Structures are given as C-alpha cells and as structure tokens.
C-alpha cells in the first residue's frame, strides 16, 4: 500500500466530507461479511474483531470514493465516465493494473460465454 498519497489530501478530504461520513456510518457493515472472508483469505482470523472489519471497511470505502472522484475529474472533459478512466488512474501501479486488466478480460469472456449459451438454448429449447 502506498501511504505517500494519503498525506494532506486525506486530511482535506475528511474535513470536506463531514456530511458523507455521517451517511457512511448509517451504511456501515454493508460489506462486513465480504471483508471478513477476504481478511480470512489473506491470513486473518476466521472471525476478526468487529472494530477491525469496520476500520478496513472505512479504508476501502474511502479509497473507492476517492478513486471515483478522481475518475470523474479525468472524465469531466469528455462528459462520460469510462472503465479506461480508472485504468488511467492506476497505470503506474503495475500489479493493480495487471489484475484489473485480467479481471476485465475474464468478465468479457464470461459475457461471451453467456451470450453463446443463450443462443444455444434458443436453438434447442428444453422440453419440460
């Protein structure tokens, strides 16, 4: 994790986003189960402390919110937010860029497979 970018901008963001923080607290726990499973997969206890899960959730939500705002800034000239705007933001973080590219490619393959499966079903409707 790169902590150099979390300096002054995170302090400014916290002060500037007081209303959204209170709205986030109302939705806290939305990703709790998913984060618990991910944390366990990365070596944490199978039942991590609720405070730890809440902290990780806050960090993830802050990161995603920050990335979306930055992507919106990049896209504002064009007027349309695209996947490529996010890829542009992570272009210098090669492991993250490679993983995103891999996931996008797999997603496209799954779409094509589903599409082919739907066409096959239309050709051979089931006799129920």
Automatic annotation (TrEMBL):
- Please give the GO cellular component terms listed in this UniProt entry: nucleus
A GO biological process of this protein is: transcription by RNA polymerase II
Principal place of residence: nucleus
MF terms in GO: protein heterodimerization activity
What SUPFAM superfamilies does the database record attribute to this sequence? Histone-fold
Pfam entry (one): TFIID-18kDa
Gene3D superfamilies in alphabetical order: Histone, subunit A
Q: Where is this region: Disordered?
A: 1-28
Which UniProt keyword terms apply here?
A: Nucleus, Transcription, Transcription regulation
Locations listed in the record: Nucleus
Cite the InterPro entries for this sequence.
Histone-fold, TFIID_TAF13
Q: What does the similarity note say?
A: Belongs to the TAF13 family.
PANTHER family in UniProt: TRANSCRIPTION INITIATION FACTOR TFIID SUBUNIT 13 (PTHR11380:SF5), TRANSCRIPTION INITIATION FACTOR TFIID/SUPT3-RELATED (PTHR11380)
Descriptive protein name: Transcription initiation factor TFIID subunit 13
Organism encoding this protein: Solanum melongena
Give the gene symbol: TAF13
């Amino acid at each position: 994790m790169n902590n150099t970018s979390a300096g002054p901008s995170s302090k400014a963001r916290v002060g500037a986003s007081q209303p959204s923080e209170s709205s986030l607290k109302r939705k806290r726990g939305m990703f709790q189960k998913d984060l618990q499973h991910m944390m366990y997969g990365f070596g944490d206890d199978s039942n991590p402390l609720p405070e730890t899960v809440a902290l990780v959730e806050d960090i993830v939500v802050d990161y995603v919110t920050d990335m979306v705002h930055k992507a919106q800034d990049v896209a504002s000239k064009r007027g349309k937010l695209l996947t490529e705007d996010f890829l542009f933001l992570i272009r210098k973080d090669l492991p993250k860029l490679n993983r995103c590219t891999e996931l996008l490619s797999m997603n496209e393959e799954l779409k094509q497979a589903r599409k082919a499966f739907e066409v096959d079903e239309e050709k051979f409707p089931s006799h129920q």
